[in-house]
């Protein structure tokens, strides 16, 4: 995996793939499938200062052109790549196409969380004024780097982390914080212990 993404100043051509839904207006009854054909787009780096997380490296970009508006023109996005040590660890499981498998897994997990929050918002009390949602994450292929990456909308505003992957959580001091922690607990109960959505932040 490259330590730096080789974006040129004029922009970089990428192919965008999205996880499509059979019933996008009813996510709880919808079936997910990968788009058969990728859409072309051009992205340009806004900041070469990379933002590193525990598993991935991130870079801020802007969309300068996209086919069929698959990425919104002028929208700022975050492109993420998995750290080399993460890829190396997972190569024991995904022998071929490790990075692609990791990207697909990340996007499918995000979609599972999107479907759960959709149902949660329908069953939560109407007196709660918040309707949380998860960002859509796309799969992109960078041609010049021969590399699979993920891309998601860049969020602005005050950032808050509600819990982490270990289940450690903040002490809630507002209705919104209580709601987000309740959602994590609800996902475990609703799926009868099959899924637990953690690392809530935004």
Automatic annotation (TrEMBL):
One GO MF term attached to the UniProt entry: ATP binding
The species this protein was found in: Balaeniceps rex (Shoebill)
Domain (Alpha-type protein kinase): residue spans on this chain: 26-202
Keywords: ATP-binding, Kinase, Nucleotide-binding, Serine/threonine-protein kinase, Transferase
Membrane-crossing residue ranges in chain numbering: none
KW ATP-binding (keyword) present: yes
InterPro entries referenced in this protein's UniProt entry, alphabetically: a-kinase_dom, Alpha-type_PK, Kinase-like_dom_sf
Superkingdom classification of source: Eukaryota
Keyword Thylakoid: no
Native organism taxonomy: Eukaryota, Metazoa, Chordata, Craniata, Vertebrata
Annotated protein name in UniProt: TRPM6 protein
């Amino acid at each position: 995996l490259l330590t730096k993404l080789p974006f040129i100043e004029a922009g970089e051509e990428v192919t965008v793939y999205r996880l499509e839904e059979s019933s996008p207006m009813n996510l709880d009854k919808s079936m997910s499938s990968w788009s058969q054909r990728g859409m072309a787009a051009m992205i340009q780096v806004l900041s070469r200062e990379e933002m590193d997380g525990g598993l991935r490296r991130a870079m801020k970009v802007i969309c300068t052109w996209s086919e069929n508006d698959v990425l919104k023109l002028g929208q700022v996005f975050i492109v993420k790549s998995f750290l080399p040590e993460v890829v190396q660890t997972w190569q024991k499981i995904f022998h071929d196409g490790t990075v692609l498998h990791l990207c697909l897994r990340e996007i499918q997990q995000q979609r599972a969380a999107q479907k759960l929050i959709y149902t949660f918002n329908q069953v939560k009390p109407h007196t709660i004024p918040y309707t949380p949602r998860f960002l859509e994450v796309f799969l992109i292929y960078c041609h010049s780097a021969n590399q699979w990456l993920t891309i998601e909308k860049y969020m602005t505003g005050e950032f808050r982390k509600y819990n982490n992957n270990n289940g450690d959580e903040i002490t809630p001091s507002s209705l919104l914080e209580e709601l987000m922690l309740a959602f994590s607990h609800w996902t475990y109960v609703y799926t009868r212990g099959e899924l637990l959505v953690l690392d809530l932040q935004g």
